[in-house]
């Protein structure tokens, strides 16, 4: 999952980044409303983690702008948003939820709870209530990043998991190599150009050829199952 964290407290931001990376997220940081908006316009994110007290304004301004946006490409106005507020800031929390935030965490928060809330918000955004994704005999569990084939655990790398999850979440939609790369890598230090192909190749070897299909010249997709 690719996450944008908009938080001006450098210590909290770095701590969040380190923790979310352990949960398999790719994390970009922005420290102001302006920087957050620029990031949302530049890249697609699976989730926005938003602080309300920012140096150049209130985080809810960013939320309002995002929900009201109708750009041809970016940002996606439906991007799930989780706000971070002070424990006693009840009024601000209610206002943000009514403005379109999906959920909130009160500071100081437990980072495992935060990760669980993020997964729940992502699930609902994908129209799913179940915590496990199934592709034929393959099962994918975002909470533990475990993959099973016919009930037996299969070892996959963090990036292989991220590729499979990204495709499974939007199936049967096709994602281009560029869209997959954008979900996996941070702005600086991109991958070598064939990295996605390598991940897909390894996933097929481990999970079967049918799990990810290629649409030649367009990208990859996970077929719809019945
Ligand atoms: Ca703040």
Description:
- With 226 residues, the protein is α/β, with parallel strands linked by helices.
- The chain is built from eight helices and 13 strands.
- It has helices at residues 10-22, 33-42, 59-68, 90-98, 111-125, 158-170, 177-184, 195-207; strands at residues 2-6, 26-30, 47-51, 53-54, 57-58, 81-86, 103-107, 133-135, 138-141, 146-149, 152-154, 213-215, 219-221.
- It has a five-stranded parallel sheet, with helices on both faces. The protein has a four-stranded antiparallel sheet with strand order 8-9-10-11, with helices on one face.
- Helix 2 runs parallel beside helix 3 (59-68) and helix 6 crosses helix 8 (195-207).
- The model has no long low-confidence stretch (mean pLDDT 87).
- Residues 8-9, 51, 53-54 line the site of calcium ion.
- Residues 8-9, 51, 53-54 line the site of calcium ion (CA).
Structural class of the secondary structure composition? alpha/beta
Share of helix among residues? 40-55%
Count of helix runs: 8
Rounded average pLDDT: 87
Report the sheet with the most strands, covering strand number, pairing sense and barrel closure.
5 strands, parallel
* Radius of gyration from CA coordinates: 18 Å
Ligand species: calcium ion
In short:
This protein has helices spanning 10-22, 33-42, 59-68, 90-98, 111-125, 158-170, 177-184, 195-207, and strands spanning 2-6, 26-30, 47-51, 53-54, 57-58, 81-86, 103-107, 133-135, 138-141, 146-149, 152-154, 213-215, 219-221.
């Amino acid at each position: 999952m690719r996450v944008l964290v908009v938080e001006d407290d450098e210590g909290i931001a770095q701590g969040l980044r380190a923790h979310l990376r352990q949960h398999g997220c790719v994390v970009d940081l922005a420290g102001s409303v302006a920087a957050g908006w620029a990031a949302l316009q530049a890249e697609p994110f699976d989730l926005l983690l938003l602080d309300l007290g920012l140096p150049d304004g209130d985080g809810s301004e960013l939320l309002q702008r995002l929900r009201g946006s109708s750009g041809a490409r970016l940002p996606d106005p439906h991007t799930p948003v989780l706000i971070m507020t002070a424990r006693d800031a009840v009024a601000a929390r209610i206002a943000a939820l009514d403005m379109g935030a999906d959920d909130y965490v009160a500071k100081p928060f437990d980072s495992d709870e935060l990760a669980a809330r993020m997964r729940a918000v992502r699930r609902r955004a994908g129209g799913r209530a179940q915590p496990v994704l199934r592709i034929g005999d393959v099962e994918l569990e975002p909470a533990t990043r475990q993959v099973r084939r016919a009930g037996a655990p299969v070892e996959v790398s963090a990036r292989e998991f991220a590729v499979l999850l990204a495709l499974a979440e939007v199936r049967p939609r096709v994602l281009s190599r560029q869209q997959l790369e954008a979900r996996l890598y941070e702005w600086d230090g991109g991958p070598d150009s064939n990295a996605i192909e390598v991940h897909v190749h390894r996933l097929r070897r481990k999970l079967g050829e049918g799990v990810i299909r290629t649409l030649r010249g367009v990208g990859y997709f996970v077929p719809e199952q019945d």
